[in-house]
Amino acid sequence: MIKTNLNINDLDKNLLRDLDSYIESLEDPKGSLINVLHRAQMLFGYLPHNLQLYVSRKLDLNAAKVNGVVTFYSFFTEKKTGKYVVSVCMGTACYVKGSEKVLEKCLTLLDVEKNEITKDGLFSVKDVRCIGACGLAPVLSVGEKVYGHVSADMVEDILNKFRGDENDS
Ligand code: FES
Question: How many angstroms is it from 160 CA to the middle of ligand 1?
């Protein structure tokens, strides 16, 4: 539940300007809540409560409704994340095929708890509900990239790819 005494003045003004111009470019801003939240998360990296409140005022929507949408969809996050978000599916199909072991391996290798950011800021790990790729169970995604039939033994190589990308850049 969002408190309404949050301070929206703490939000980065330049990013808010970008978000405002996106909202103004929409034909039906009020009916485009999910798109607006996507843009907000892209700009800010996550959706803290004061940003959700800002969006609700801007679109003239109830703050509880906005928060309901943010918490319903697993691709939205209310917490600051690492540069790469590792999502391990815990839906039934993935769970019965061992996704818990995959999740544990991610947490052990990165030495973090769930939803915590690694010390280098590169990764955070979360569990998610079914992402609709049950035929590939167990499924893990890193950012937009989805990996299917993942076993705990494959996790290190997958994470190293992203570390490698980092060293290349
Ligand atoms: S249960 Fe994991 S993708 Fe559906």
Answer: 24
Tell me, what's the pLDDT at 5? 65
What is the CB < 6 Å shell around ligand 1? 89, 91-94, 130-134, 137, 139
How distant, in Å, are the alpha carbons of 12, 13, 37, 51, 54 from that of 9?
A: 8, 8, 18, 10, 10
State how far the Cα of 7 lies from the Cα of 51, in Å rounded to an integer.
9
Collapsed DSSP state (helix, strand, coil) of residue 40: helix
Residue 139: partners with Cβ closer than 8 Å, 6 or more residues away: 88, 89, 94, 99, 131, 133, 146, 147, 148, 150
pLDDT in tens, 73-93: 878 989 889 999 999 999 999
* Tokens standing for residue 141: 């995604």
25 CA distance to ligand 1 centroid (A)? 35
Token pair 């917490």 is found at: 79
Q: List CB contacts of 58: < 8 A, sequence separation 6 or more.
A: 19, 20, 23, 29, 36
pLDDT for 165 equals: 73
